[in-house]
Specification:
Blueprint lengths: L1 H17 L19 H9 L8 H13 L3 H14 L6 H14 L5 H9 L4 H8 L6 H10 L4 H13 L6 H7 L5 H14 L2 H13 L2 H21 L1 H11 L6 H14 L1 H13 L6 H7 L8 H6 L7 H14 L2 H9 L6 H14 L2 H13 L3 H13 L3 H10 L6 H15 L4 H7 L5 H14 L5 H8 L5 H17 L4 H13 L3 H8 L2 H4 L2 H11 L4 H12 L7 H10 L3 H16 L7 H11 L3 H11 L5 H8 L8 H15 L4 H9 L6
Helix pairs in contact: 1-9, 1-11, 2-3, 2-4, 3-4, 4-5, 5-7, 6-7, 6-8, 7-9, 8-9, 9-11, 10-11, 11-12, 11-13, 12-13, 13-14, 13-15, 14-15, 15-16, 15-17, 16-17, 17-19, 19-20, 19-21, 20-21, 21-23, 22-23, 22-24, 23-25, 25-27, 26-27, 27-29, 28-29, 28-30, 30-31, 31-34, 33-34, 34-36, 35-36, ...
């Protein structure tokens, strides 16, 4: 096929280049020129060259459009266009005229076309114009011109005759298909294929038997085209052609293309042919046969081919699942469901995905049972995704809920995730019930889902859950869920009030710790007061939770108590957590020169190079002369010199427009970039 395509390109592209004036999209002028002005217009167009005004071409193109519905004007316009084909006219004018004659030309223009066909420079223009002419004299003219044409001109004429499917040129095409010139050979072969007649087929067959290499490939592609054309006009001959192309010795692509076409042509016999292929060992044809199952007209096809899995390899089973899924009928669902027990994981996952695409409420139990039977992570994820994407709306949701009693542990947790993803906040009643489950996996899954679906209505229940005795992993999920729900609320005031009320009533340290972790989400003064108070609690667990809450506070109101805790703390891990909070708060003040005082206070209290590196990493974002001086002071400290250099460079570049001298002096103290 590549050879044929290249021949067409070599023919068409020069024509497009010669006829580059795409006038059909131009707007028509306000008025069509009168007939007595036509000769003047033709004269103006005859001298047109690229780059000149297009106005005369626009007017003539509008006149051509008007002439299509005016017989008297049409004759005059055609005569004028024929005049433009003369050698005296510019090449651009001749190209324009040829394009217009393709729409308006009659037999009167054929003599002028014949002259164009004699000249290698203009043969393309004539071919372009003649493509729309009715069969008969135009074909005769092209055949006459072919006798004397050589090289590219011969190729162009052959392509035009082939496109016109001129059966009387069969002998000429055969001769060209035996030519030593590769371009002429390809054009002749392509033309025979386009003819699509029994004679053309019988001409191509012996030519191909003698051909080798690329020539054999070109003729094979022409035969495929010929067979497709035969299918429209002579189905019996097309069947014989496709059958020969499916022979085992033929290339795989040809065999597959022929089978696909044969199955479309003989739909009533397709099922029997597909069954024979699937039962056999022809690996080339099986993919096409399996794909064709999707469009078989027989209502029993799904049941029939659902029993073919036993004869297929694993990859072929996946293809058949996809074909059956396209059919999406009851037989297809049953056959696909049967593959959930396949030994190959890819086959099972394909079956799960297909059931997710075509299933509904009646399919939930099928996937649910498989959920209880497998521990494969990929398969479990596939089941989850399939249930989430499955259609059926409320009925499917109810089927998922109805299956809960049948499963426990990880399977029940997965179904909770499915329900939450399908229903959103509509699933919250079920999630609130399941978060109290004695099974940690189920409870955690419920909290995890509520983190996505919870609303203001669920806040009291979530707070109540935090007050209960919870295993550490479950408590962590409960804390995260409650915090995320609070974060999403547009009006958190009332909910935060409930958090503070619960905190003041709480007795157990683990409950207080959980509730303290929610205060940064509130971020108001009342919540900050509680955090400050708890930071002085004698209970180490409560005190630690309060300090960590302060380190996550969203605004600078927490700076002083947070800084005091950092200054007084001796626990390395806690100091780092506090310092990260302070650095984060300081970054909010980067636009203000006074931020240098905050960073200076931090560097004064820093213990060790690790803490200094954390401070310097943030300091570089504060572009002020004051912070520059602070960063410069650490260039002499070996352990943090690299971080200090980065900070100095960033600050110097930031202040350079307003403080060029300070920036220049600072950069001079740095080693050159490598």
């Amino acid at each position: 096929m590549n050879g044929i395509v290249m021949t067409m390109k070599n023919t068409i592209y020069p024509l497009l280049g010669a006829a580059a004036l795409v006038v059909s999209c131009w707007p028509a002028p306000a008025a069509t020129p009168a007939t007595n002005d036509l000769q003047q217009l033709i004269s103006e167009v005859s001298t047109y060259h690229s780059g000149q005004s297009l106005e005369s071409l626009r007017q003539l193109e509008a006149t051509v459009r008007a002439a299509l519905h005016d017989p008297a004007l049409r004759a005059s316009v055609e005569a004028g266009l024929v005049e433009l084909l003369s050698p005296e006219a510019s090449y651009e004018a001749r190209s324009f005229a040829a394009k217009q004659l393709a729409f308006i030309g009659s037999e009167k223009a054929l003599p002028a076309m014949g002259e164009l066909l004699k000249d290698p420079q203009t043969v393309g223009l004539a071919c372009l114009a003649l493509t729309t002419y009715p069969p008969g004299k135009a074909d005769s003219l092209l055949r006459q011109a072919l006798a004397n044409a050589r090289g590219a001109a011969r190729v162009q004429i052959l392509n035009t005759l082939g496109d016109r499917r001129d059966a009387r040129s069969t002998r000429l095409f055969k001769k060209a298909a035996a030519d030593a010139d590769p371009a002429v050979f390809e054009a002749g072969a392509a033309a025979l294929g386009k003819l699509g007649t029994r004679r053309a087929w019988s001409t191509l067959e012996p030519l191909r038997r003698k051909a080798r290499g690329a020539a054999n490939q070109t003729l094979l592609e022409a035969m495929l085209v010929c067979a497709d054309r035969l299918a429209a006009s002579d189905p019996k001959s097309a069947v014989r052609a496709y059958t020969s192309l499916m022979a085992p010795h033929e290339p795989r692509f040809a065999r597959q293309a022929a089978l696909a076409a044969w199955l479309r042509l003989e739909p009533d016999a397709a099922g029997k042919r597909i069954s024979a292929i699937l039962a056999g060992s022809d690996r080339d044809l099986k993919p096409v046969a399996i794909a064709a199952v999707a469009t078989l007209p027989s209502p029993q096809a799904s049941t029939q081919f659902g029993g073919a899995f036993g004869t297929l390899e694993d990859a072929e089973k996946v293809w058949l699942i996809e074909s059956l899924a396209t059919r999406a009928d009851a037989g297809a669902k049953a056959a696909i469901a049967g593959q959930l027990a396949a030994t190959n994981l890819d086959v099972r996952i394909a079956a799960i995905g297909a059931l997710g695409d075509i299933g509904g409420a009646d399919t939930v139990a099928i996937l649910g049972r498989r959920l209880s039977e497998t521990q494969e992570a990929d398969e479990l994820k596939a089941i989850e995704n399939a249930l989430i994407a499955m259609g059926g709306g409320r009925e499917t949701d109810q089927a998922v809920q109805a299956f809960f009693p049948s499963v426990s542990g990880a399977s029940r947790a997965l179904l909770l995730s499915v329900l939450a993803r399908r229903q959103g906040s509509g699933a919250n009643a079920v999630l609130l019930q399941e978060m109290r489950s004695a099974e940690a996996a189920v409870s955690r899954a419920a909290f995890r889902a509520l983190a996505r679906t919870g609303t203001e209505q669920e806040v009291p229940a979530l707070l109540a859950a935090l007050e209960a005795q919870l295993a550490s992993p479950v408590r962590l999920e409960a804390e995260t869920a409650t915090a995320q729900v609070l974060t999403r609320l547009t009006d958190r005031a009332a909910a935060c009030g409930k958090v503070r009320e619960a905190l003041e009533k709480a007795k157990a340290s683990e409950v207080q710790s959980s509730l303290l972790g929610l205060l940064p989400v509130c971020g108001d003064s009342a919540s900050l007061d509680l955090a400050k108070k708890a930071a002085a609690n004698p209970d180490p667990a409560i005190r630690d939770a309060a300090v960590r809450a302060l380190s996550e506070w969203p605004n600078l109101e927490a700076w002083d108590p947070l800084f005091a805790a950092y200054r007084d703390s001796t626990e390395p891990a806690l100091r780092v957590a506090l310092l990260r909070g302070l650095v984060r708060l300081a970054a909010e003040e980067h636009a203000k020169p006074a931020v240098a005082d905050r960073y200076r206070a931090l560097t004064d209290q820093a213990k060790g190079d690790g803490e200094l590196k954390l401070i310097l990493g943030s300091l570089g974002g504060a572009g002020h002369p004051e912070t520059l001086q602070l960063a410069l002071a650490f260039l002499s400290r070996e352990g943090v010199r690299a971080e200090a250099e980065v900070a100095v460079r960033k600050i110097a570049e930031a202040i350079k427009p307003k403080h060029p001298e300070a920036a220049r002096d600072a950069l001079a103290k740095l080693p050159p970039k490598t």
